[in-house]
Amino acid sequence: MIPADHPFFVLHADLPREGPGETADVAWAAEVAGTPDTARILDAACGPGGDLGALLRAAPKGHVTAIDLHAPFIDAARARWGADGRVTLTVGDMTTPEGPFDLIWCAGAVYFLGIEAALAAWRPRLAPGGAIAFSEPCLFTDAPSAEAIAFWQGYEGLTDAAGIAARVTAAGYETLATRALGDIAWESYFRPQEARIARLRPGADAGLAAVLDEAEAEIAGWRACRAETGYLLSVVRPA
């Protein structure tokens, strides 16, 4: 686990999101999954709670359990959502909440475990008829450039949509629908980050400057390769 005072978290503190996403992604996934307005939802690896509002709109009479390993992210989410009785905020492992959940939402964090391991861990936590929506790095072309592959910094699980679907099937699930995250989702993550980089750059020490350089390279890399790679959002259900 990265310590809270690491330059990475100096950059990411107080950002509205910890990964690409937009409210339309949540609404689409909830509709595909047939999520009822009374749904019990798990926001797995919720970060600072960037998707909580959209999840609550998807299930206005339901309840969202949001969990993340990084306590300052939960503190940030609590500052906004702590007074809402429809939300429970917890520091911990994203596979541990017992449920049962009608929808498990995981934005960009399944890669920490691998698709098969994550889906296996969540299966007993799903309510009957429940579904999982997760976003995963994906190649959108049969001939990706070296730059597109390098964008994911050696992620061993990198594959295309068919490869992701095969892993879902291997885990004993069926894929209900998929869609690629759009430019709005990515810019909703990157533009606030760029503004924070600009504020932190003056006077940054060597460690922080290196983190800022890496973040700027990531942003430029995605903008250069966004037609070739990005996140694929999959909605899946036990077969």
Automatic annotation (TrEMBL):
Annotated Methyltransferase domain residues: 41-130
Keyword terms, alphabetized: Methyltransferase, S-adenosyl-L-methionine, Transferase
One Pfam family matching this protein: Methyltransf_25
PANTHER family from the UniProt entry: METHYLTRANSFERASE, UBIQUINONE BIOSYNTHESIS O-METHYLTRANSFERASE, MITOCHONDRIAL
One annotated GO molecular function: methyltransferase activity
Protein name: Class I SAM-dependent methyltransferase
InterPro entries associated with the record: Methyltransf_25, SAM-dependent_MTases_sf
Gene3D superfamilies (UniProt xref): Vaccinia Virus protein VP39
Tree of life domain: Bacteria
GO biological process: methylation
Species per Swiss-Prot/TrEMBL record: Roseicyclus persicicus
